[in-house]
Input
Amino acid sequence: MTKRFVFLSLLVTAGATAAEPVGRAKCVGGTLAAPPFGMEGARGDVCMGRFSKLRQIPFTFAVFSLFASRSRYPFEKAPLTRGQVEVAQVSETANLTVERVRFWSEELNEPRFFLALVPKAPTRLTEAFILNHGWFDRPESLLKYLKVDRVYDGMLGRREVRPAVLIIPDVRFKKFHRLNSERTPFPSYLTLVAEEVAGIASRRYGIPFERSRWAIGGFSFGGYVSLDVARRYPGRFASVSVISGLVDWRWSFWPAQPPISGITDLHGRSRNTVVAPGRIPSLFLACGTDDRLFGTMQRLHRILEAVGIPCAWSSGPGGHTWEYWSSVLPPMLKFSLGRLGADQEDAAD
Output
């Protein structure tokens, strides 16, 4: 543990204590493996305090996000020109080829990449599932700690899921407060994930932009991104999975009537602008009972159920950890990609 981290931890602990709302649940600390998050109080608010301008975002997450570094691997430093797409094979399993696809993001004006877990059979793939990582992680983290490639490979081998290209985008950003600011009603991750990453994957793997062929999900900040994408692009994604996710309570969730626009960006897009209208996607929500975001996820579940939006809900012992997320990964994949039907199984034979 470095001196910088010790100092930061003490700063966050002091700030959270000073910001403790009177008569509500205390803000609590975390660990190196799971940075501390605010807890909900009796009225469903999160511990934020007067030191944070981020509405409804846990105070300690807001502070830690200011110091998160976006470390770059050597391949990320190689020059890349506009319009260029660079593909490299990373690894291989019995049923999968893992590729790294690097491209120029016009939205961010810099190179970005995603990992693609591509089933070897059938030769023509028709579905895709975008899986987003957390704020303090990078795409490779889901392979290293969740063993997504091994889990997915095994499920394909047992025919528990339909074959689809599983896409893990690089959704690292420098400052969370900029993404959540009033001056950023349409964060850049929306265009990056829903249009640039999805567009390149569609062209490379021949997956049509048809709603029934696309799903999205994620862990922690990745769940936050996935939920925001799904509510803005319901006509593009048939299902969304949110695991231990942050939630912005200024969001509207698939209302019958368009909400009041509020502050807009240069393109006229507000915090609740819907880009691709469509039916409400199927929802899978999960959170460990020891997670400091458990109250947030419970509240999201109650709000959606109250307005008639059904959700598959899963909870069990566990915190904001890789161990708990590993237990939820197979159910999430089954929810998003389902089981092979008898006719499909016969065709595969």
